[in-house]
Q: What sequence folds into this?
């Protein structure tokens, strides 16, 4: 007895073909579904771990170079999890703020090199370093602006009226970091002399949004940020307010808390006004403050970042005037400081 094989176009053959295709699709779909669940779970775990542990850990360290390297190296990995789960917008604020700072630090180094070349009458080298400086500022602007955009995706576009609910202190800090990213994006774009697409009204938006943050909790930084915008943008200062008086108050709060971030804003405002005397005073004050009181345990990184910026400003002043940056251990002093009078002894009296 022989078994007849149904023709390939018979109903039974077609049924078998459909069944085989369906089984194959189920297997492949099943693998894809399993992978998607695995990736999503991994992404959620990484986001949670980074916010709960990585960021707080970094805030307690003082190695700015390592933080810079980490942000640039891990940003693509961590942000790619947005393809399989919700975008890590809060984490992105911190990553892009730090990565923008990396690019800005390189821009500052190029500026110092350009100034040194000018003093050496090497015009071509000075121009080349100036071009590199602008390129790094353009990259910094893009990164800062990306941080600002992720800030708005998570917290909503600041309107100065409705404030987000902060579940924990870190949420408030990330909100403030996003505001700083927005202001830094505008500043970096201006320094780059190129069009990155940063809205020109971002300064006013940031100033209004700082009212959502408690000034005492955040070391006077929200008020300092707002006052800096007042000092930088014509007509932004409300009637009856004085930006530099507010900055003085914020400085005292930051010094008492051990997080001297307000000094950076104060220095930026002084530079914008062309007030060299005030700028020097802020640099001296910062140097004295970090010597007299250690940084707050949970915010060492923020305080060290403030010192890095203050040192960079000091370096530029030294380079412009004497051709080299701030000597080691001399932050807060300047090339034209009068030496302190020393007591002399008359040896004739002893003899």
A:
């Amino acid at each position: 007895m022989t078994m007849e094989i149904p023709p390939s176009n018979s109903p039974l053959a077609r049924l078998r073909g459909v069944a085989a295709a369906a089984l194959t699709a189920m297997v492949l779909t099943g693998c894809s579904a399993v992978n998607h669940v695995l990736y999503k779970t991994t992404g959620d775990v990484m986001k949670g771990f980074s916010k709960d542990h990585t960021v707080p850990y970094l805030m307690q360290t003082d190695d700015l170079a390592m933080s810079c390297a980490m942000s640039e190296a891990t940003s693509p990995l961590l942000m790619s999890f947005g393809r399989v789960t919700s975008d890590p917008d809060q984490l992105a604020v911190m990553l892009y703020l730090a990565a923008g700072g990396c690019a800005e630090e390189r821009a500052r180094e190029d500026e110092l090199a350009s100034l040194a070349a000018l003093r050496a009458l090497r015009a071509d080298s000075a121009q080349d370093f100036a071009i590199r400086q602008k390129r790094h500022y353009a990259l910094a602007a893009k990164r800062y602006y990306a941080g600002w955009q992720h800030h708005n995706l998570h917290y909503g576009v600041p309107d100065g009226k409705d404030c987000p609910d902060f579940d924990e202190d870190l949420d408030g800090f990330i909100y403030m970091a996003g505001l700083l990213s927005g202001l830094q994006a505008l500043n970096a774009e201006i320094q780059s002399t190129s069009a990155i697409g940063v809205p020109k009204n971002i300064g006013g938006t940031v100033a209004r949004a700082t009212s959502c943050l408690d000034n005492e909790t955040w070391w006077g930084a929200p008020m300092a940020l707002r006052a800096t915008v007042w000092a930088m943008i014509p007509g932004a200062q409300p009637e009856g307010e004085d930006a530099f008086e507010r900055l003085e108050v914020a400085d005292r709060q930051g010094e008492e808390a051990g997080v001297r971030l307000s000094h950076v804003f104060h220095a930026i405002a002084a530079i914008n006004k062309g007030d060299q005397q005030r700028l020097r005073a802020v640099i001296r004050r910062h140097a004295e403050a970090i010597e007299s009181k250690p940084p707050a345990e949970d915010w060492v990184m923020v305080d060290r970042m403030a010192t890095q910026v203050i040192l960079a400003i000091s370096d530029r002043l030294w380079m412009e005037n004497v051709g080299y940056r701030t000597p080691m251990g001399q932050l807060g002093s300047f090339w034209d400081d009068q030496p302190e009078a020393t007591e002399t002894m008359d040896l004739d009296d002893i003899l």
